[in-house]
Amino acid sequence: MGGGGKSVNYYEILGCTQESSQKEILKAYRKKALTCHPDKNPDNPKAADLFIELSEAFKILTDSEAKAAFDKVLAAKEKARLRTKAFDVKRKKFKEDLEKRENAAQQEKEIDIDAAEKLAAEIKRLREEGSRLLKEQQEIIEKQLKEDAKNKATTTNEDLLPKLKVKWKAKKTDHDNGGYDENILKEIFQQFGVVTAVVISVKKNGLAIIEYAKPSHARVAIEFAKGLEDNPLTVVTWLVEPSASQETPCEEKVADKKETTIPEPQQPLEPQRVLNPSYEEDFEAMVLKRMKQAEERKRLNQELQDEEAFTSAT
Predict the structure, then answer these.
(1) Where is this region: Disordered (predicted)?
(2) Which of the listed residues 50, 150, 166, 169 has the most CB atoms within 10 Å of its CB?
């Protein structure tokens, strides 16, 4: 490592300072190690060397004796830097002072050598003994990398469920939101298939997101959903349209035959129409189970906020 630490600043490698606590050093190491880990950078041939450099810096700065030796080297270097700066300013004026400074520099150089040798000895000791704290942190990092890979590999199509954006006329001051609420929207759209979620905007009247279990259901809803008779829906369109890979010919054929075929277009509904109790009970049980998933609700709300921002901008 650069001749016992002479050309390496371990604080700069980790992105911390001499005043940083061990907790801050640990946090800085973990953050950089996660981004520089060879598994995260398979195309970077220098990733392994950088990771080793980070590990050595961590070992030095979390060992009190090695850190003290390194700090002494830094202090000596800083003194030499200041001495050289002062020397350059005054060298033309004071020849005698130059000689004194050269003598002092020689003495400090010997101190630098002693400090560097001690640091090199500490580095050698740590390499031979290993660092328990470094090993623990690397195990944590490996575990986190595996979790990240697992989460990425187990991503389901649930994030890609078809979603519709629906709009209707409603003034800002209308507390009834144009006659629409979650139950009314469920009643309207569940006629075309299984509705997995309904989210109504709390910031903007006349805007909601409908999520379906299958793309075929959503397609039928786009074509036939009308809304309330006295306040029809003005927009029923895709918010997230499924890709072709999500719809197999077999699935579409079964969906068309068993679930999405309707004899004629939907007739407009009367305001606040009462749902069939038994059907609503089964439906609500299914929806409640899904809506208890906090992450799903958060994701839908974020999509709605994005749509609100887009609508406001346009």
Answers:
(1) 246-276
(2) 166
Count of beta carbons in the 10 Å neighbourhood of residue 267: 9
Q: How far apart are the first and last CA of the chain?
A: 57
- Which residues share a beta bridge with 233? 168
Left (φ > 0), alpha (ψ -120 to 50) or beta: where does 252 sit? alpha
Please name each of the domains of the chain with its CATH number. 10-62 (1.10.287.110), 161-240 (3.30.70.330)
Q: Are the beta carbons of 167 and 225 closer than 8 angstroms?
A: no
Q: How many residues does the chain have?
A: 314
Alpha carbon distance 261, 221 (integer Å): 11
Cα–Cα nearest to 29, from 119, 135, 106: 135
Distance, CA of 5 to CA of 15 (rounded, Å): 16
**Tell me, what's the pLDDT at 66?**
93
Find tokens 């959903």 and name the residue.
225
